[in-house]
Amino acid sequence: MAEETNIVLANRTDAQGTIEIVPEVLEVILGIAAVSIDGVYQMRGSLASTVNAWFGRTNHGKGVDLTVEDGRLTADVYVYLDYGVSVPKVALKMQETLREQLLYMTDLTLDEVNVHVLGVVPEKAEQLDPTELFADDDNSEDSEA
């Protein structure tokens, strides 16, 4: 969870005021960017985010912990990956994409992006219908006649 202090986005002399952003918004930006990477199955969730998902409310910031210390931004990203992907390649792509996306959207730079792979999720096997296991194949009888 992000800290409770707002982050000042720009300190320009030509600005007409200050621009501040809540750290939770940065977590949402990073969460959406992380899920969009090929090979990422899903982000880590909590019980609250799971219950909210049941009711149709998605929390895009789940699985991202942002810390701000002495003006340095550090993101810890907790993910599950698809089976068969190269873990280092996906993690490096995630670090690169998250840094670029945050810089593009907010002009803030991430000093660290720590990727925590919590697991690998295999593809689900196709479910067999037990009533169709021993059913006669009508097409094979027609072709023999």
From TrEMBL:
A Pfam family hit: Asp23
InterPro entries: Asp23 (IPR005531)
Similarity-based family: Belongs to the asp23 family.
Designated name of the protein: Asp23/Gls24 family envelope stress response protein
Taxonomic classification: Bacteria, Bacillati, Bacillota, Bacilli, Lactobacillales
